[in-house]
Amino acid sequence: MSADRPGGAGGLPVDADEHEDLLQFLYQCPVGLVEVDDGGVVHRMNPAAARMLAPVRGTDDLPRLFGVLGRVCPELVGAILADPRRLGPVGADRRFLVGPSPGTGPASAPVVELQAVRVRPGRVMVVLLDVTEERRLALRNEALGARLRDLVAATLAYRQAAARVLGVSATAAAALEELLNRGPRTPSALARWLGVSGTSVTGTLDQLEGQGLVVRAPHPDDRRSTLVRLTPAGERRVAPLLELLTGGIDELAASGGGTAAVLRSATSALRTRARATDRPGADPARRNRGY
Prior knowledge:
alpha+beta, two-stranded antiparallel ribbon, Beta-Lactamase, 53% helix, 291 residues, 2 domains
């Protein structure tokens, strides 16, 4: 600031160019700023604030901000008026949002976050932030999370249906899926992948080996260990049942359409195949892929 231009607040000198720059900054700032008194009368407002308030003001008189906020965000008005002598952030432990509730309006409907700071007695600065994109992404993530939970449930149902057809436990079916997908594995690696103890995986492998689905052989690189692999007969029996889990979802992902579309298609395919697999007398080796 220049020292030869007096006239600033509190006797501080003000440079006219810097003052104009500050006004332009506030005018062009993408964050909404509104200064009001304790009666809600607007003393200053930048264009961003007027733009963000336009969709919610209705027929209310914008110079009286509390008339607008009292209808769309009465909690913030209450917080501002609750303690008029306290300076600083108002309702700092809360988040005040104005916009349609999730699922009640178009995805593009604007959502504005309001913050308030009492800057001096009788004066409150209300800050408006456009959080429309943030809210849209949050809702999208919630939807993807729901679809992912559906996919997990459908995967479990499909694996259980395949286990019933094969006459094995769900854990054994998961072990067969891993062997089909990744090839020979050591018993300890299978136990880690299945999340079971070594004793438990030994019992599972005994069951599968007794049915001729897998075979255990010495590990070529570790004489203390063995490798478990599908037998040719086991692969012929298991592959038609578990192909959707081991390869079909990869094909769905490669087909494009976005994450949500892939999750939706995979869930639908798994549910369809689970119902078909569970049908009495159905031959999985002759069944269409279904996706």
